[in-house]
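Friendly challenge for the regulars: who can give me the structure tokens for this chain first? No prize, just bragging rights.
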Amino acid sequence: MNPLVESFYDLATSTFSHVVYDRDGGHAAIVDPVMDYDPATARTSFDSAQRLLDLVGQHRLAVDWILETHAHADHLTAAAWLRERTGAKVAIGRGITGVQERFKAVFNLEDEFAADGRQFDRLFDEGDTFAIGDLPGRVVATPGHTGDSLTYVVGNAAFVGDTVFAPDTGTARADFPGGDAATLYRSIRRLFELPDDTRVFLCHDYPPDGREARAETTIAAQRERNVHLAGNVGEDAYVRMRNERDAGLAAPKLILPALQVNIRGGELPPPEANGVRYLRLPVNRFGGGS
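First reply, four minutes later:
Bragging rights claimed.
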């Protein structure tokens, strides 16, 4: 059984979120939802997430899962906000514990912050299975961009997070802490073993001038036309290209607030003594390409 998928694009962060469901009046999962965040004022809002809920209501869907492909560095997740309104379980890869441990130290988070994944309802491992109503799903570990990256395969659809982008824009960076270009290469090659007609749903698209953002491609298109991997590009050549390219990339604009919120499953830090919640800015800790 193959899923129905509706995709929503957040222009501010170039992020696609997806609603995956079995049928009208059935069950759904939400993949990689976005919390709206204004970096100038540090104000949050949920118009983007509300669009997902509006679709859920239109199709009379029960939301079973909120699926995170990894702890994102380019947008804040709306997972906690959606869980409160739907009762869905929030899931991510078990590798999140390593991400939490690393960034608890970077941000010098409160002692009470537990780096054991308890902020999520389910920690997935390679080969785990789940269901969205009548739709069977399985988990493919695809680390490399980050250590906790997963792909969710539901019927003929694969939700690949930041492993690959549209074929004309290539593949994701691998220079974040816990990332590795060789590991990313092997993860993508695993994805290329899926059937040619597998629908590949992207988390991001950064289209060149003259092209609209695209949420969907196929394994065949990726294998044949991905500008970083098409043909017989070997691991050494890919790693060399990826490392050289990453060295010139600036850090994502929202990396500091995003990581602090996303390792908490979309919850903001706890309020301090004055009742205000604060996000931290570690000075001179991050730089271009890191």
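DSSP finds seven helices and 15 strands in the chain. The chain has one domain: 4-251. Your move, everyone else.
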